[in-house]
Structures
1.
Amino acid sequence: MMAQAVAGVALHKPFTGESVNARGIPRLEPVRKAGRVQVRAVATRDSPGVITKAEKEVTRNRSMRVAEMAEEMKRVRAQMEEDEQLSSLMRGLRGQNLSDNQFATSDTKLRLVEVDATGADGGEQIPQVYDPELIANYWGSRPAAVATRIAQLLGVAGGFLSGIAMDIITKKVKENEVKRAIELREIVTSLGPAYIKLGQALSIRPDILSPSAMTELQKLCDKVPSFPNDIAMALIEEELGKPWNEIYSELSESPIAAASLGQVYKGRLRETGEVVAVKVQRPYVLETVTVDLFIIRKLGVALRKFPQIATDVVGLVDEWAARFFEELDYVNEGNNGTRFAEQMKVDLPQVVVAKTFHKYTSRRVLTTEWIEGEKLSQSTASDVGDLVNVGVICYLKQLLDTGFFHADPHPGNLIRTPDGKLAILDFGLMTQITDTQKYGMIEAISHLIHRDYEAIVEDFVKLDFIPEGVNLKPIMPVLAKVFDQALEGGGAKNINFQELAADLAQITFDYPFRIPPYFALIIRAIGVLEGIALVGNPEFAIVDEAYPYIAQRLLTDNSPRLRSALRYTIYGKSGVFDAERFIDVLEAFETFAAAAKTGGGDELKGNMASYGIIPSYQWPSPAMQNRRVQTRTALLFIFSEQGEFFREFILDEVVKGIDAISREQLARVMVGLGIDRLRPVLSPVPVPGLIRPFAIVPTVTPEDETVLNNVRRIVAFLSFGTPSAQSAAEGGQLEIFEVVRELVPVLPSVATQLVPEIANRLASRILARTLREIAVTL
């Protein structure tokens, strides 16, 4: 009923004689081209099947406006890359500064603390979950071991530390920051896992370090020399309770890769014959990490006496160390991989996660399925673009849906399998995104679309960029300037990046503005995916891939906060329905549905790849059954099971549309019959009481005209892109029946749900209008 009611109006001129304006030109079915989703536009308006030259021009202009943000981002990115420091920083965030070598250079020496911290001697044991107090108690009672480690550190980094001290004394910390970062990068690998990991964590924190310093730390390599095989085999036996050759029928003679925490062998399970990867933790890692944390925290406490050091070193270390300790527990890593795979298998079966063999996994030994493939960043396959799209969807699903976020997405962890799927490796470092953060990011995007800067600043508080209780009014003008420069058409060439950086630096100086740790990881993840995509597609813009997923969340998630975000996206601050925003959201959803089918999602029947698919209907006529109709994905979605929430959301607009269409059509019929000519005759006739004569012909109010124009825009968008519409564009008639035909399988159930509610709301609307008209005539 809803489809027929709104479809009929598309075949007529507006009753008022006004043409549909420029914003009503429809945009049509997404098509695949060179691994990307593009949109093909066909339009018709007053005359069925006729596209005017003006409409074609306006469609082109409108498409440019819709894509304006993405185009501006590309131009801004190009200008940023002209700056040497910013370009290097961007390469680092994309993981392009990392070495692809599986081992460190031969002259690298890793210095570890070789003491027994297991408690085997009857003494206390180092905690296996991060607890600063217990760690301090443990190492505080072992001053000799601590002194030995300090001597090691000073022997390697004495010059560096004395340079830092001199910078503090002479107040040249900022001036010598880059120089010290270079020195740090050159020595940190030999200091062990804690320093390597901490350096990598700092390399994505622009709120703590300058771009130059970040660039140097991004060159850190986690690859270190391997440790002897006999030690690794002994550790396997100690951890799993059997000699390695009773568990694995084969094991590579030497490790295939070695990192600061452990090294990896390729093997085969004796029990099942499956090929596996066996990761063995490096000896004395826990001991070395904890003593280093103990020393760094002591140093952090001492640095609090110097006001020139604004960063809270103790807080930063505690924040990072808790996650780092999780990486040391391979049981936790295996469980993370299993949980991640469960979360992806229904929606994104084209994302591959190595199966964990929990029977052969312990705190220091991890056995997982061996994944064949090549690094996505190095692949020359034609489907790399599609797999990047899948990767963007996957990371956005983690970020905005499951909240279980893979926090170590460097290029080596993203693999293209031989059968064209995307494999994700290494689940030691994960972070949890809260509901407040998930919904807050979507709300912030909705506010950014409408340039509601007051709301955006409030979003920064919710997202932990700004602490609660801070006076936000002085921040808004600067942020408004930043966003306006970035979003205005042609704004990229007008941006003064030095001035922009100064504005942002002033915010961080004047206010406790920081980048939350979880968001730094998000920046890195998106940066890595962007870096891979840009190799094969220089026109890649992350907003083109991200907004479609956000549109999908808005249309399918019935949580109160996302319902509110959807309403704001379409209605804005004014609360007035914006057909253009409505179409934008649906068009973005179509882009998402097309992307979700790539990388094998369609063949594997992924849940996200099924959006907009409705059950087939057995027609009595074979000819009708074999005639395939390509209805827009957006229209199919609205009538599908997944579209139930959205149907309810737009019900009021449907009622308004039916009411306006009915009044327009009734007015058209009465004018056609000449009844409107009776108005001068009947208008003088008195009516008992104080009520004056009613209008015989229904009045099409300005509100009705707005609603009718909105309906025409939406129907134009939803109805076109089909073979019948293309026929209409060539001069034929639009066959609404063809669209309805494909919707037949779901129309009965939808009608059962919606018709009574539409009837009730329509009756209420008509009654309210009648009462208003009566009140006016009194």
2.
Amino acid sequence: MATEAAPMDEKAKRMRDLLSSFYAPDPSISTGGSSINASFDNINSTSFDADQYMDLMIKKSNMEVLLQRHVQMAAEIKNLDTDLQMLVYENYNKFISATDTIKRMKSNIFGMEGNMDQLLQKIMSVQSRSDGVNTSLFEKREHIEKLHRTRNLLRKVQFIYDLPARLQKCIKSEAYGDAVRFYTGAMPILKVYGDTSFQECRRASEEAIEIIIKNLQTKLFSDSESIQARAEAAVLLKQLDVPVDSLKARLLEKLEQSLDGLQIKPEDASKLVEHNDSSKDEESNNQGPAKIHEDAVRGFSEAMRAYREIFPDSEERLFKLARALTTMHFENMELYIKKRVSAADFLGIFRIIWEDVVLMDEVLPEAALSDLSAEAAQVTLKQFVARTFSNLQQDISDTLLKFDINQKEIVDGEVLKVVLEASRKAVLQGTADIFQEFRQLLDESSGIFVKMKDFLVGWVQKGFQDFFRSLDAHFLVLSGKTSSSNETEGKSSEKIHAGLILVLAQLSVFIEQKVIPRITEEIAASFSGGNSQAFENGPAFIPGELCRVFHAASEKLLQHYIDTRTQKISVVLRKRFKTPNWIKHKEPREVHMFVDMFLQQLEEVGKEVKQILPQGTFRKHKRSDSNGSNTTTSSRSNTLHSDKMARSNSQRARSQLFETHLAKLFKQKVEIFTKVEFTQESVVTTVVKLCLKSLQEYVRLQTFNRSGFQQIQLDIQFLKAPLKETVEDEAAIDFLLDEVIVAASERCLDVIPLEPPILDKLIQAKLAKSKEHNNNTVPS
């Protein structure tokens, strides 16, 4: 950096010297003090000696250095010529411009002196004429001013003489403010001349003022008078120099008692809002509740202003009264929103409260009512948002429970389908409505709401998150899956219809697949962002988590429906096997009635799922004939009949059991319990599987004689055909039915099955009887 700065300084110095030599007439001036200290080899010095410089260069330098110096000097000479030429050009243009300017100035100034002389003559003429006018009008002006002063004095004298009459008129019209103004205006004159010229006027005026003071004192403590009127009376008394400090405690107590009438009570809030909205379109003087409340608060504010002037030491108490009224407003607001309130009504009450706060804040800015209102408004708005979500959950719950679900309605109609459609509509329409409500809050432009928009966005996001979590828990309570702390909310699990559980399961699927994505889009469009403080107690809206919650809830509820239905059917099965004495059972004459009850229960399940769940890909899973597990009863009985005709009953029984056990060893492995799908066939199949498994366990707990075993054989054989028509997994059903027969044979004391012809005969008889019963029950 130092090496670069040195050449620049040298060049600048050379340019200055060049300019100095160009403009300075004396060469000694251009060099200044530098020529004194210049050395003999300084080429820019005025004392430079070229011959001496060349001799020195020849002695000290060789040919190569001399050539380099020659080239350097040639370059410097060329640069200096160029710089000098540029300076001449630039300054030439400036000289031309300056010359033109001087010429224009000379032409513009020409004739100005004559004009100035003419102007001076005119000014002197105007001044002389003005002095003449002033001299001629001086006496008249003095006379007019004297008359004007006399007129004002006469007016004052007339006002003093008319003062008693004026005061009496004010007393009759109760215009005490004008009376006090007249009297205080006349007091300076009455004090000076009241004992001489205006003695009678002063006496009459004082008598009238005494009456006015009494009337003002009466008005001050009258309960029928408004707060503002009493405050005005106190101000007028103070202007009349009446001592009012002794009345301070009583006046402030009256002011405090008036707070009760200024409250916006919850039962009156709706009327205030309705009238306030309707009065906006009316130009007439409408003295409705809103206008009356506004006037009352305005009077309260003016009273505080007056008392503050009258009693300067009462500011703290006035601050407390203003804060107390503000606090009561928001406390009543919290009570008001506990019932169902629309966003429009909520905003209407909020505007009224804010107008009251503004009125009082103008009078008492030191009370910091705006800050107090902002804090209370945040609490109230947050409660309103939470209450709105709570009302939506209650609407959904009421929609689910308003239908009287009983078995007859499910069999005869489609009540479950109606409940599901109504609940879906309640969820969709309800969420759309509260979005519209919250948009009204977000669009509100009043001062206090503008500051809370970020908080509102955060509360709405978190509100939806909490709402769906609460709705999930509420579904589990309604289904009886979990218990509720509030006994009035739900029913006991015994009273809950299984169809409602199925509706809740399908509704959870609908919320997961349709509602939550729609809510996510709405939030992204209108309620994105928000204040981080709103999420301090939990996360914001997380759709992925909510989808997982409702997916798990739908599976839980579907399984709960299956368990509920299975338990109900298991009661029938348990009664069937615990009631008779199987050791002394008689020979089977027909298929037992529990089979009809079992099939009837399965038919009810089928009708319920048909209303709620969609059909799946109905693929029947059959056993292959090669493993021997899918052989029908008829073919097996025919084979036994043809191959073992000569055997005795005991030999036949032992052979059949041996074949059954041997077939089990070579059976293809069957997966009985698979994942339940949200289809009609999957749910019905799972219920049947669980019931047959329960049937097998009940069989294992009993001990049968020959007839009891034969009865079980007959009932199971009859069940095979209708169950296979109902379910999608025939292989598993076949397997479970065989397991029941095997379990019964293992618990039988004398295993001798029914002969196939007898078995077929009893089954055909049951089928004919059922057909006849169905024909008789069909309405004509």
